[in-house]
Design brief:
About 15% of the residues are buried. The mean pLDDT is about 80. This protein has about 350 residues and is an alpha+beta fold. It has a 5-stranded antiparallel beta sheet with strand order 6-5-4-3-7, with helices on one face. The protein has 13 helices and 11 strands. Strand 4 and strand 5 form a beta hairpin.
């Protein structure tokens, strides 16, 4: 355990440069006192590690010192091969680079770890898109990725769902995210060339909706403290909060309950109670996107679900159900074609 931690400190300082004892302690999930002892152990072992006191101090390796020691454990070697996604890498123009990197990594592994990594590669395959998702062409992905990597402002022609449907944007790209097989660009609106910095917060753009892209050559830098993963996590949380702004009180049969998914299934499990009037049915308050969306959803459940509130939604579904019954000639229990 201690040897693994010492190696982690060494690699952290090698890859990140100067770090304080508090930063190392947080990264390794140990106490600051433990970091002090580990630093002394590394210095005693001959590692050219020195520390400076004060507000801007911290631990640092002697300039030019590098270690070729990786210390990969079996699980770590397997995980490296498991996280490789050849499809997305190829879309970014990095397919050959990924294959070469895997080849080099495999050659550097001891025989035992190489066999375990090969077993992982042969027995596990990651396929991100869902079953019914159609592949969307992203002809400008490589150019967008290049602008992200080099920190360059781009001018794009973008297609959106509301009018005007095609708009021109100057964007300062912050990063690319692959979500459920679809690429998204996180970018802020770039100001004029003679104005410093981006304007406003970053927004999310679907890369497959970018119709044209031109790199301007203007540099753009990430805002201080911006982390793509943390930003994306916040964006997803805010999206889910906005997705279901309304609620509906319903009662559903066991068959209908089994067809609920996501937030509605969780709400049913958390708040559902046995319906006092219909044995085997459950009554609950479920989140809904809108009354229009809820009308279509609950109509699809047919007689296996009943909306109790709000009254406006109940009336909408009643009118639609009556119109459907009339269309099929079953109003009043009589077949119109009989």
């Amino acid at each position: 355990m201690k040897s693994s931690r010492l190696l982690s400190i060494l690699l952290l300082l090698q890859t990140r440069g100067r770090m304080t004892a508090a930063q190392l302690a947080e990264e390794l999930e140990v106490s600051v006192r433990t970091v002090y002892r580990d630093a002394e152990a590394l210095a005693a072992a001959g590692v050219p590690l020195y520390g400076d006191a004060g507000h801007s101090g911290g631990y640092q390796l002697l300039d030019g010192y590098r270690t070729r020691l990786t210390g990969l454990a079996a699980g770590e070697a397997e995980a490296l091969f498991l996280t490789s996604l050849p499809g997305p890498a190829a879309e970014l123009g990095l397919g050959r680079a990924l294959s070469t990197a895997q080849l080099k990594l495999r050659a550097a592994l001891p025989a035992e770890l190489r066999a375990q990594a090969d077993r992982m590669r042969l027995r596990f395959h990651l396929d991100a898109p869902g079953w019914y998702a159609e592949h969307e062409e992203t002809p400008h992905l490589a150019r967008v990725a290049d602008a992200v990597w080099r920190g360059r402002v781009v001018e794009v022609r973008y297609r959106r769902w509301k009018a005007p449907h095609e708009v021109d944007r100057r964007l300062a790209p912050y990063g690319l995210v692959l979500k459920a097989g679809r690429w998204y660009l996180v970018a802020a609106t770039a100001t004029a060339p003679d104005t410093a910095g981006p304007a406003g917060p970053p927004y999310t753009y679907r890369v497959d909706q970018i119709l044209a892209v031109r790199e301007t050559g203007e540099e753009c830098a990430l805002p201080e403290g911006f982390e793509l993963a943390a930003h994306w996590q916040r964006t997803q949380a805010e999206f889910h909060e906005r997705l279901y702004p309304e609620e509906a009180e319903v009662r559903v049969s066991a068959r209908a309950a089994a067809r609920l998914t996501g937030a509605q299934a969780r709400a049913l499990a958390a708040t559902g109670t046995p319906d006092p009037e219909l044995p085997g049915w459950t009554r609950a308050v479920l989140p809904i996107e809108s009354q229009e969306q809820a009308e279509a959803q609950f109509l699809a459940l047919g007689a296996e679900a009943e909306v109790l509130a709000p009254p406006a939604l109940r009336r909408r579904i009643g009118v639609a159900a009556a119109a459907t019954a009339a269309r099929y000639g079953t109003v009043g229990g009589e077949d119109r074609l009989a």
